[in-house]
Amino acid sequence: MKYNINLIVWMVGVVSLFVSCTRQTQMTSLLQQTDSLLHRHQSDSALQLLNTIRDENSLSGAQRMKFIWNKAMAHYQQEMSLLEDSQLYQSIAYYRRQKDTVRLLDTYLLEGMYLRWKEANDEAIAVFDKGIDLAISRKDTTNMLVLQRKFLCYPSIYNSY
């Protein structure tokens, strides 16, 4: 009898481990798909995929940061409000700590745009300036121009400078 109970407990443990590993692999794949869609500026499709994730808390730390980031980037690409992306600062800090070169300058872009939506113009100016300075120091003309364009496209920010 004791042998059967131990066997059942062991089998339940193995099955739950298998299910959790499979779920993590599926989430990683889904987040990679949204990365690809965002890169091709298909943010509407990326948002549809991201909205299929019902329980953010089931994601690993890195997956959660990518989920928050991709959702904010999709909102940005569609020129939607970033106000609902209040967890964006966690993701920005994560990618800056990781020194993710792909996302580094975009962290300044998203942070500046989030602050703009919050009407925190002075803070947005400072963030855009830091991003522009970093892009210049890295000789990244493309991202420098993107940041400058976002900085200049919003008269309320530019006029307060």
Gist of the model:
Helix content is 76%, strand content 0%. It contains eight helices and no strands. It has helices spanning 2-39, 43-50, 61-77, 88-97, 104-117, 121-137, 141-152, 155-160.
Mean pLDDT: 82
Number of helices in the DSSP assignment: 8
Radius of gyration: 20 Å
Distance separating the two termini: 78 Å
* Secondary-structure element order, N to C: HHHHHHHH
Helix and strand content put the structural class at mainly alpha
Tell me, briefly, the overall form.
elongated
Percent of residues in β-strands: under 5%
Query: Helical percent range?
Result: over 70%
Main sheet overview: none
- Spans with pLDDT under 50 lasting ≥5 residues? 17-22, 156-161
Offer a few descriptive terms.
single chain, 161 residues, mainly alpha
Question: Would you mind describing this structure in some detail?
Answer:
By secondary structure, this protein is an all-alpha fold. It has helices at residues 2-39, 43-50, 61-77, 88-97, 104-117, 121-137, 141-152, 155-160. Helix 5 (104-117) runs antiparallel to helix 6. It is elongated, with a radius of gyration of 20 Å. The termini are far apart. 30% of the residues are buried.
